């Protein structure tokens, strides 16, 4: 390889020659020594250029994505632009450090500089970057944060369903929802606003008038959408032990005493009645045992009068007297 004209400075020198004197060139060499290409490094306006023969490429500056922060409504279209000073570079897009594959929702235009994503969903939120590349180098932009506005979804109150609340106990209800941005909260009791605009509703001591339907509304100001949830609170007459610490012991003691009193009032008369009947039956059995060992139950035997013309004065007869009609039925069997 031959050189036409003087070389400004030799790459083996770290500093360019002084303009006041001609440069000191290395000893002449043969043409065979120039079989390999000579690489010269030049500086110009803080840009580094690599010259390889007649071909040169610029080391790329860092690109950027506009806008750097975006909030898109769910179902709408996301638009991002990659800004690069070199128009001859190839451009690729990344989301959360992964290259975006082509699909029917992703549309690239203007040499991939503009990204359009149609029908945005919650899954499209994340960090987007663009990468520029040429044959010498590649650079990646800082992340552009994309948020997707949606909701409120999955509105619920905890605890849920029908709530049994002891009289005098504290009632705490918590409302939650899946929403971006953070929504506004409000409460209704039996269709009337209670004036609490937070996700939590607290009733310090539950009274009878606190029984009813509690509703929570959740409002997304950006999407102009409202979600609802409701629960039913039933107040019971069993007071909360936490509301009256000494009341539970008195209630237990009083309940036991009352139960014992009822038992005594019921059992004692029954016992006396049963004992009296038993004594009466025992006395009847004792008085008739000597007269008739095999008598039917309830049979009363008494001696009959002596006949006037009895040939045998020693003979006697007995008259039988039955105690009741049931005894006749037993004898007839």
UniProtKB/TrEMBL annotation:
A biological-process GO annotation: heterophilic cell-cell adhesion via plasma membrane cell adhesion molecules
SUPFAM superfamilies per the UniProt record, alphabetical: Immunoglobulin
Keywords, ordered alphabetically: Disulfide bond, Glycoprotein, Immunoglobulin domain, Membrane, Signal, Transmembrane, Transmembrane helix
Domain Ig-like: 61-147, 152-232
PROSITE patterns associated with the record: IG_LIKE
Gene transcribed to yield this protein: LOC129342862
This protein's name: Carcinoembryonic antigen-related cell adhesion molecule 5-like
One cellular component (GO) term of this entry: cell surface
Record family assignment: Belongs to the immunoglobulin superfamily. CEA family.
Keyword Ion transport applies: no
Region (Disordered): 1-31, 294-316
Record's compositionally biased regions (Pro residues): 14-29
Transmembrane segments: 251-274
InterPro entries listed in its UniProt record: Ig-like_dom, Ig-like_dom_sf, Ig-like_fold, Ig_sub, Ig_sub2, IgSF_CEA-related
């Amino acid at each position: 390889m031959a050189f036409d004209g003087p070389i400004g400075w030799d790459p083996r020198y770290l500093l360019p020659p002084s303009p006041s004197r001609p440069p000191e060139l290395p000893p002449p060499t043969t043409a065979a020594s120039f079989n390999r290409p000579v690489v010269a490094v030049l500086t110009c306006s803080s840009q580094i250029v690599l010259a390889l023969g007649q071909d040169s490429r610029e080391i790329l500056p860092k690109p950027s994505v506009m806008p750097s922060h975006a909030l898109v409504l769910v179902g709408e279209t996301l638009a991002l632009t990659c800004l690069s000073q070199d128009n001859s570079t190839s451009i690729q897009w990344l989301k959360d450090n992964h290259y975006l594959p082509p699909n029917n929702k992703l549309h690239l235009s203007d040499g991939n500089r503009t990204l359009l994503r149609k029908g945005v969903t919650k899954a499209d939120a994340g960090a987007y970057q663009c990468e520029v590349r040429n044959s010498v180098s590649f650079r990646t932009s800082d992340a552009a944060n994309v948020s997707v506005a949606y909701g409120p979804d999955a509105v619920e109150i905890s605890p849920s369903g029908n709530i049994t609340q002891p009289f005098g106990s504290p009632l705490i209800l918590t409302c939650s929802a899946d929403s971006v941005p953070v929504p506004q909260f409000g409460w209704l009791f039996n269709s009337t606003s209670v004036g609490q605009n937070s996700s939590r509703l607290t009733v310090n001591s539950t009274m009878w008038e606190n029984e009813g339907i509690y509703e929570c509304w959740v409002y997304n100001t950006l999407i102009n959408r409202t979600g609802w949830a409701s629960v039913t609170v039933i107040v019971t007459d069993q007071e909360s032990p936490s509301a009256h610490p000494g009341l539970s012991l008195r209630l237990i003691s009083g309940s036991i005493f009352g139960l014992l009193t009822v038992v005594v009032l019921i059992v004692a008369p029954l016992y006396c009645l049963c004992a009296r009947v038993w004594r009466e039956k025992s006395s009847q059995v004792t008085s008739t045992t000597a007269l008739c060992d095999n008598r039917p139950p309830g049979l009363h035997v008494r001696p009959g009068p002596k006949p006037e013309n009895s040939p045998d004065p020693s003979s006697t007869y007995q008259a039988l007297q039955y105690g009741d009609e049931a005894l006749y039925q037993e004898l007839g069997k």
